[in-house]
Each structure stands twice: as C-alpha cells, then as structure tokens.
Amino acid sequence: MEAAVGFKELTIGWASLLEAIRRKDIYVMLILSGIIIAVTGIFNAFDVPELRKFMMDVSLSIINVFTVIIAVLVSARQLPYELEHRTLYPMLAKPVGRFQFLMGKFVGTMGLSSAALFMFLAVASVVFVGFGTPLGGMFFQYMYLRWVSLFLICSMTLCLSLVLTHAANVTISLLLCMGASMFTRTVIIVHDSLSPWQQKLITAAYWIFPHLDLFDVSKRVIHGWLPAPSWTLAVMTLYALIYTGIFLGLGHLRFRRLPL
Amino acid sequence: MRPVLETEHLRVVFKGSSGQKKIVAVDDLSLRVNQGEVVGFIGPNGAGKTTTIKVLMGFIFPTSGKAKVLGYEAGSKMAKSRTGYLPEVALYYPFMTAEEILRLYGRLQGIGKKELSELIPRLISRAGLSGFEQLRLKNFSRGMLQRVGLAQAIMGDPDLLVLDEVTSGLDPVGRRDLRNILKDFRSRGKTVFFSSHELSEVAKLCDRVILIDEGRVIQEKSMQEILEMEGKQGSLEDYFVEVVGHKVT
C-alpha cells in the first residue's frame, strides 16, 4: 500500500518535472549562471589567493541565489496553476488523495530544484578543479546543506501558495529565504534596545521563522574551514525536516477542505 | 435496485465576499441513480448541476446533507477508483501528448505498466484520436481535448461514469462516438450520470431525466414518460421549457 502511495506521488512529481523541462525558461537561468561561474573562474588565471577567494565567493553566491529563485518560483506556481487551469480535476478524480497530490507536487518541486542545484554545483566543481582549487570536505557539506535547505524552501513556498496570491507568495518566500541572515543579525543588534513586549515579539519571531542562513556555509568553504562534525549535519537535517513536516502539514490542513 | 449514486437533502452554500450575501447553489437536493441506468441531469444555467457533480466527486463539500457514490462517501478513494469523470471544462496539461497524459492518469488509476501499454492505443483509437497521440495537447482543438477527456474518463472500465457537459465541443462524429461508448457502457450494466445542455443528445442517450432548477430537483421522469406525454410536449426541449419556464441558452 505504501509503495503504491509513493508511486502516485512520484507520478505527479514527474508531471511537474516534465512541465518545467518543456517550458524551457529554467534553461535561461542555468545557462546564465553557468556563464557567470565560468567567467569568474578566469580570475584564477592570475594566481592571486584573494582573487581565488573572490571567484569562489561569487560562484557560491550565484548558486545560493539562483537555487533559491528556482525553488521558490517553481514551488509557487504549482498549485495556483492547477487551480487556475483546472488541470487538477481529472487528477483528483482518480483515486488520489489531496495529501498525495500535495506530496506529489512537493516531490516534483524538490526534484527540479535538486537537479538545478546539482547542475550548478557540477559547473562550479569543474571550474574550481579546472583552475586548481581543490574541493574539500567543507564543499561537500555545503552541497549537502544547500540540498537539505531546499526541502524547507519548497515546502514553505507550496504551503504559502495556498494562502497567498502568487506575487505575494514569491515576494514573502524570497524575503524569508534571502533575508534570513539579515533578520538574524538585526534581531541580535536591536534586541536590547527594545521594550520588554517588543523583545518578546521579536524573540518569538526569531524562533518561529526558519533560519535558512544556517544552511549557508559558503563562507567556510571560501576560507578553507575544516568540515563540521557529522552530528551537526544530522541536527541541521532534522531541523529542516521538522520545518518541512510543519509546512506540509499546514498546507494539507488548508488544502484538504479547500473548495475546488 | 442498488443505488450507485445517492444524495440526501444536499445543500451547498457559497460564502460571498465581505458584505455580499451567501449564494445557495444546491438546496435540499435528494436524488438516486440505480445501477445500469443512464441518467441525464438537466437544468438551466446556474441551476446547480456542476456544483452537485463537484460534490459527488469530492471537489467541494456539502454545507449539509449527504452524498454517496457506489456506497462510499463521495470523494473517497474507494468511490473514485470505480468512477470515471469528465470535467465541464476539459483542461489537460498542454505540455504533454495525448499518450503521455493517458499514461499519467492510468498510473494514478493504479493500472500497471504492461496493461497501460496495451490499453492506451485502444483508448486513443476509441476516442477517435488515432494519428494525434504524439501531438502536444496545446495544439488540440476543444473537441479533441474533450475526446482526450472522454478517453481518460473511461480508462480502467469504471462502474460509474460522471460526465459534466459531455457533448461540449464535440462535432457530429464525436457525438456519435460518444453515443456508442455510452451505449456500450449501458449494455454492460454500467451506470452513467451526465449533464448536458444539448437536450436532443440527452433524449438519444438516457433512460431517465432529472431536472433541477435553483438547486432543487423539479421533476424526475423516464424518457419513455416524457415521450409519451400527450399534448404540447412533443420533445424533451418542450418539456424542459414547460417545466423550467425559460429558454435554454
């Protein structure tokens, strides 16, 4: 029974993946980022260590930004597209539950975002190795944590797509993803200068909002840090999966009784 | 006889946006369709036909009352596994081909890979889409999409067919193909419940007619009864206009 459930989710996910591949707009982002990463690789030719760090910084920042954009844009359009174009009626008329449908969409967005991430990383790896920058253990931890963060980003955006308009969802999701580190820094700086109730409010927000900045260890890669202990990765994985579960659960609560 | 489709005092109320009043789409609607029947569900625009069908498929939830399909709660997986459904506005993934979309629905129906590879060419041929199986659906006309919809609805040989505005977009050949499919279903003891504004088609296809207006069942009559009615009502359209009191658009 479980295998059959997984199969249906994979089938729905496959349809989402096929759509993204055939729509072709994702290729523009992949080609553009590939070119930027490859061009920054030229800095290595000067054999200046600081320039090498700059090249890595630019490359990894591009990977961070573009994977987030792809994950958010793909996840944000899944359910609104189905609802707007009524393509979900024949799907949900088959013996498919609404949670299965939601999970199928999540599988599809994860599949596409993961494929994009690994393509970016493949290009970056070729450029780094090609210009004599070895890929250390930290780089692979960076890859893994970026991938784990996609679970959180895709589930959050899918969930928000059920309560917000498309434009609002994309804006808020991108702000939450890209502004996470800024928010954390701001909270730490302003906390003591706030009134007690403001402190409580901002502390609550600090603990409620997912800290996507924790999944970005690109600076450690650039500055040649040693890999973090494996328990750290386990905790981060658990953190991401808990939030993923919460977002998919909330999404299901909204979607299960949504009049279609 | 065993009811295949049943509603009891079904009521669906749509909440209006702030400041607007609620809309009662279906009001105390009770109906029953037995096994082996082909039943036409007719009524003027806004009568509540599509809303009722959406409740039966589990797309919207009744405000009160009950709806059962094949003895199961409407919208349950058990009910859906034996029901074929054609939506009112047939929209399918435009980036897929007819063959791909049927494969997708077949997988969701739980049909095996080997069985699907035999079934899909048969369905494509039966729906009159031979030669178009590799064409993406974005290039299909409305009538061709309706044929795709029909093919996915009859996939897996369901016990019940629920068809919303079934003749919409179909050309005369398509309508004849549809009639043949429905006759085949009836001859094998299957049940068909469909809505349509094409009353001449309804008259050709169904055993019984359920007429609704303003969310309520106005009348239920067998086609035989309608055809035998004396006097001014010589056709289903005359009967419809007489009962509902305004013209069909």
UniProtKB/TrEMBL annotation, chain A:
<feature type="transmembrane region" description="Helical">
    <location>
        <begin position="231"/>
        <end position="250"/>
    </location>
</feature>
<dbReference type="GO" id="GO:0005886">
    <property type="term" value="C:plasma membrane"/>
</dbReference>
<feature type="transmembrane region" description="Helical">
    <location>
        <begin position="58"/>
        <end position="76"/>
    </location>
</feature>
<keyword id="KW-0812">Transmembrane</keyword>
<feature type="transmembrane region" description="Helical">
    <location>
        <begin position="144"/>
        <end position="165"/>
    </location>
</feature>
<dbReference type="Pfam" id="PF12679">
    <property type="entry name" value="ABC2_membrane_2"/>
</dbReference>
<feature type="transmembrane region" description="Helical">
    <location>
        <begin position="172"/>
        <end position="191"/>
    </location>
</feature>
<keyword id="KW-1133">Transmembrane helix</keyword>
<protein>
    <submittedName>
        <fullName>ABC transporter permease</fullName>
    </submittedName>
</protein>
<feature type="transmembrane region" description="Helical">
    <location>
        <begin position="106"/>
        <end position="132"/>
    </location>
</feature>
<keyword id="KW-0472">Membrane</keyword>
<feature type="transmembrane region" description="Helical">
    <location>
        <begin position="26"/>
        <end position="46"/>
    </location>
</feature>
<dbReference type="GO" id="GO:0140359">
    <property type="term" value="F:ABC-type transporter activity"/>
</dbReference>
Automatic annotation (TrEMBL), chain B:
<keyword id="KW-0547">Nucleotide-binding</keyword>
<dbReference type="GO" id="GO:0016887">
    <property type="term" value="F:ATP hydrolysis activity"/>
</dbReference>
<feature type="domain" description="ABC transporter">
    <location>
        <begin position="5"/>
        <end position="239"/>
    </location>
</feature>
<dbReference type="Pfam" id="PF00005">
    <property type="entry name" value="ABC_tran"/>
</dbReference>
<dbReference type="InterPro" id="IPR027417">
    <property type="entry name" value="P-loop_NTPase"/>
</dbReference>
<dbReference type="InterPro" id="IPR051782">
    <property type="entry name" value="ABC_Transporter_VariousFunc"/>
</dbReference>
<keyword id="KW-0067">ATP-binding</keyword>
<keyword id="KW-0813">Transport</keyword>
<dbReference type="InterPro" id="IPR003593">
    <property type="entry name" value="AAA+_ATPase"/>
</dbReference>
<dbReference type="InterPro" id="IPR003439">
    <property type="entry name" value="ABC_transporter-like_ATP-bd"/>
</dbReference>
<protein>
    <submittedName>
        <fullName>ABC transporter ATP-binding protein</fullName>
    </submittedName>
</protein>
<dbReference type="GO" id="GO:0005524">
    <property type="term" value="F:ATP binding"/>
</dbReference>
